[in-house]
Amino acid sequence: MLAEFDVIRRYFTLPSDDASQQGVALGVGDDAALLAPQAGHQLVVSVDTSVVDVHFPGDAPGDAIGHRALAVALSDLAAMGARSRWCVMALTLDQAWFANDQAAHAWLADYAKGFSALATQHATALVGGDVTSGRLAIGVTVMGEVPVGEALTRGGAQAGDVIAVTGALGGGHGGLALWQQGERDRSHPLLERYLWPTPRLAAGEALREWATSAIDISDGLLADLGHLREASGVGASLDIDALPLAEGLLDAMGEDAARQAALTGGDDYELLVTLPAAHVEQARQRLAALGVPFTVIGECSNTLGVHGLPVQRYHGWQHFKGETP
Amino acid sequence: MLAEFDVIRRYFTLPSDDASQQGVALGVGDDAALLAPQAGHQLVVSVDTSVVDVHFPGDAPGDAIGHRALAVALSDLAAMGARSRWCVMALTLDQAWFANDQAAHAWLADYAKGFSALATQHATALVGGDVTSGRLAIGVTVMGEVPVGEALTRGGAQAGDVIAVTGALGGGHGGLALWQQGERDRSHPLLERYLWPTPRLAAGEALREWATSAIDISDGLLADLGHLREASGVGASLDIDALPLAEGLLDAMGEDAARQAALTGGDDYELLVTLPAAHVEQARQRLAALGVPFTVIGECSNTLGVHGLPVQRYHGWQHFKGETP
User: Fold this and answer.
1) Contact A20/A143 with Cβ under 8 angstroms?
2) Nearest chain B CA: its distance from A257 CA (Å)
3) Whose CB has fewer CB within 10 Å in chain A, the N or C terminal residue?
4) Which pTM does this prediction carry?
């Protein structure tokens, strides 16, 4: 049987010389972790829970589930322009697994591989965890740092600012749809987008100098733009034809459905930012150097609401409710 | 229906002049919170998940569930000698509630009352949260601070050190047993102990000066003493007759069962510490000033294992497994 005390240490211990272990005075294994925050910085904290069959399909690969659970939390740090440092994980494992040691260990090894690879990539140490039994769910609290006063928020957009996004849109939605249709080729670009989303941490840090506001696209472009507009008190006009579509999306869904996915599909984890038009070219170049596309898709205005949509209403995704205005 | 975006803001927003809001540059409502760590301090972080019918009975009062979920996490900060500052909460609400608005709101109001009262008492701001549907569970990540190098850990006990505990033992186990037998008088001292445990934060800070090691008693005295012995590489002899028994425990259970509850019952959330005998009196006085009893129950030794137990084996509680050596 699984002993809850052992799971975290057994599957999630990284070598102490791993880059992620910087600033960890005491990691997993005591009542709490001891961490050394950097002087002149603010701590940036967010929590995200991923529940089986709500946020990811139960038959998704274990390593993708581990990757995604951390990625969606890191994406929130990216949206603040923060550097990621540490995380803790609350893992609820399926009760049935506790009757089947072998299945549990196989899944855990796979899950930990996906989680730890992304953690290492972003120098993020897992400094605490807790394992319970129930219905598979993962709660990840991420902690990052940003120089005092430099964080990006949802609240600074000004009328006249340009609206831009990193990467491409619609792939999260398109990938999930493909998965549900039975596609299992992990190298399909849409499946890759859905199962292994990329938190845009380097892009978020790079954009700090010019962006006036930022949010990550988890609920869908229109829904998240709505949060940003509300916090900033601005309207927006969008250029639908400018939306960067995820690779393979047009082929898989056709033009109308692809554009709908880009506007309202969730799970893209790209950054949506506003910035003065004068800095767009600099921002584009800096992000290009990071390998991240940067596309202008509209402009902030004084007229509240969203303009430029070809159909009357698009909807964003909200868990529990399904589509919502 | 409940909108997940609103739950945290609606039920958990405290006035910005509340003492808990110190050091919160940006709270709930953006992608992440922005916090100002104190110079010269380490960050102390722990996560605890409470699952219905595993860690608390589903029919427990909502305010007690809120109180307990935070209390068990704060108890880990107390065991490090830390001051609590901030927390985030991952709340998984019962799916059925989303079909019944009124029941959900009534429960949430109750739950938030218990959670927020304890948070305010310990100047701990809820700076982020996330609400999902599934089986009722609460994951709380707490963040505290401690002056650099002064944290208590499980690892510093020396042979010859005295072993002491705060408060009284067995009440968590006794209270749960009473609840399961149908007792519903919230003012019964044992129910109070189980449903509204007291995280010993002030005591933990006060003991920092003298304690050589510390742990909180969540799995039971013997089990947690085992963790401390293992981390410190010491043995222990206990004076069974010295164990401070929770109020009402003898009456409710009789002497043998009461002592067993004190040794192996979980959910007490008292501190178990070691310290040089020379400082016991100072520590006792300082804790008395805080209204917290402090009782010597044994001594650390060079002989590994636990000595002085009147029966061959007592067991500690481990979730999933039940009793375990």
Assistant:
1) no
2) 26
3) C
4) 0.93
